[in-house]
């Protein structure tokens, strides 16, 4: 069964609007033959969504040029024919240039 699904970002610094891309990764402790679905709030994100790329078989979500409109709660759902699990929310909060705000939190 699928277990311990989580989301991490590839940046350890504050995200600043228009500073470039950020990649979110979906990690899974256990499970095989996995498929992935990314969500922003209640909306599914797919490979044809503008300004994003989904890679590594769906395991990563790259927002190509982070803006305030990318703020929100992101989740990853990992599943296979046996089971599925959804990560906790990962909040992305890019700041405006020159502002100091927390860039990401895990709820």
Model description:
By secondary structure, the protein is mainly beta. The chain is 0% helix and 47% strand. It has no helices and ten strands. The strands form two sheets. Strands 3, 4, 7, 8, 9 and 10 form a six-stranded antiparallel β-sheet that branches. A four-stranded antiparallel β-sheet has the order 1-2-6-5, with no helix packed on it. β7 (72-79) and β8 form a beta hairpin.
Structural class: mainly beta
Can you count the beta strands?
A: 10
Q: Catalogue the unreliable spans.
A: none
Number of helices: 0
Percentage of β-strand residues: over 45%
Shape field: elongated
Alpha-carbon distance between the two ends: 23 Å
Report the order of strands and helices.
EEEEEEEEEE
- Radius of gyration, Cα only, in angstroms? 14 Å
Largest β sheet strand count, sense and barrel closure: 6 strands, antiparallel
Q: Mean pLDDT, as a whole number?
A: 85
Secondary structure: helix percent: under 10%
Distinctive features:
107 residues, single chain, 6-stranded antiparallel β-sheet, elongated, mainly beta, 4-stranded antiparallel β-sheet, 10 strands
Q: How would the blueprint of this fold be written?
A:
Layout: E1 3-9, E2 22-30, E3 35-40, E4 43-45, E5 52-55, E6 60-63, E7 72-79, E8 84-86, E9 90-92, E10 104-106
